[in-house]
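Late entry, evening session. Most of the bench is empty. Finally got around to the prediction I had been postponing all week. Sequence below, unchanged from the version circulated by S.P.
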Amino acid sequence: MKLSHTFSKNKEYTILLQGVINPKTFKLWIKNYSDYTVVVSIWEDEDLSDYKIPTNWKVIKNKYPLVRFRKQANLDYQIITTLAGLESVDTEWVIKMRTDEYYSNLEKVLEKMKNNPHKIVCSSMFFRKYGMYKFHCSDKLLGGTTDNLIAMFESTLQNLEMNLWDEPIPESQLGLAYIMCKDSTIDIDDVNNKRAELGQEFIEEKAINSFTNVSNTISTEIINIVHTEFINNDNHIDWETVTNSVGRWKSILSECLNVVNKHKNQYLDDRPYMQKWFDIIDINELKPYIATSFQGKKGRVWYNSDFDNEKEDCVSDIKKY
């Protein structure tokens, strides 16, 4: 796999590679990005004797934690190696990726980062469609200013240590953490609200049930009023009774709206936050690439420039999130 340079080699940003080394992908990084500014943040037991590491690269070896605080999908490992790597980044911009994956045309990522300096740029791979999970970005590739990447991972670490959100999905923890450190309008109490997790379907269900019950009751009373006061009373209409009934119906409908609005207020729509603080680059713009994921019973799955965003329920355009 040979990298085709669309732009000249770029010194504006640092490539941060973290995690566990895969020989195939790591050799591609060395072959095609030897003249780039690269920081490699790996574990103390990695054997680098088979690799000719470029002299301009920085290699950081990390000790394993004595106590693991968030084992799900190795989020704590990602935080440790990423923050250690970010400490050695001297450039304004950084693109964080995994050592067991490989991407090309990173200047396209840089362009998006520079156009949206307050945002984190993610790949489309596993940037999940709205409604599947809350605040679910993609951690396959994370790009932005070095300060913003540090803020994202330090905020995630703080949230986990304080147990602010009992969410096992790493990408959701990262997504929320970045928003929390940048946006004062986000309320963790709203995030933790169990009803909020049920989302729009919950609101619609409550609305339909409430209005159905009320409309059935009122419809029955209207029929009775029409028959009693306007048909079978020889034109002696009891307007006071009619007025009182209409007033009561209005009160019931008002209370029904209050119930629906209450549930609506308990529902947190994460779309505006994700669209404000994140951007997406289609992974297929970064061909040739090698990416991977662990998918339960399927085990380790590899993608060789063949990831299907739509089939995998992923978003390639943040405006369509």
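Two things to note before I forget:
Residues 194-265 form one domain.
The first helix runs from residue 23 to 32.
Will write this up properly tomorrow.
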